[in-house]
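Bumping my old thread because nobody answered last time. Still need a sequence for this structure:
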């Protein structure tokens, strides 16, 4: 298990915030938006990160990517907001600021409108 400061350092160094945008004709605006954070590494390392996140009431899943490489995935909106609030005071990187802004759009349910969806795409750099 890691202390909060070490966990923040690991998140800054290894975590990759991402928002998957895929087309889905069943939805009103035609796009499905899924925010997530990935961390790659060996199973022991990711299991210890997962236990530390659990102490902060953040749920995560460790999945086998191939024989020796595993991925830890965090995808619940509530958990992602906790992580960004934990990391943002220590970061000057654009990766986390656009991710936080996108999460706030999703939390307000604005991503279900065409304006909110296009705003997220602009933040991500797709448009």
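Sorry it took so long. Here it is:
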């Amino acid at each position: 298990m890691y202390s909060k400061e070490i966990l923040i350092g690991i998140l800054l160094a290894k975590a990759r915030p991402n928002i998957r945008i895929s087309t889905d004709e069943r939805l009103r605006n035609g796009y499905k938006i899924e925010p997530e954070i990935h961390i790659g590494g060996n199973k022991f390392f990711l299991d210890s990160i997962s236990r530390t996140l659990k102490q902060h009431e953040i749920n995560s899943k460790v999945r086998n990517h191939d024989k020796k490489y595993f991925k830890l995935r965090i995808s619940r909106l509530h958990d992602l907001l906790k992580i960004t609030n934990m990391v943002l005071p220590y970061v000057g990187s654009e990766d986390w600021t656009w991710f936080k802004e996108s999460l706030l759009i999703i939390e307000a349910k604005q991503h279900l409108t065409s304006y909110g969806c296009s705003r997220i795409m602009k933040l991500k750099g797709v448009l």
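Strands lie at 16-23, 31-41, 61-64, 70-74. Let me know if any region looks off to you.
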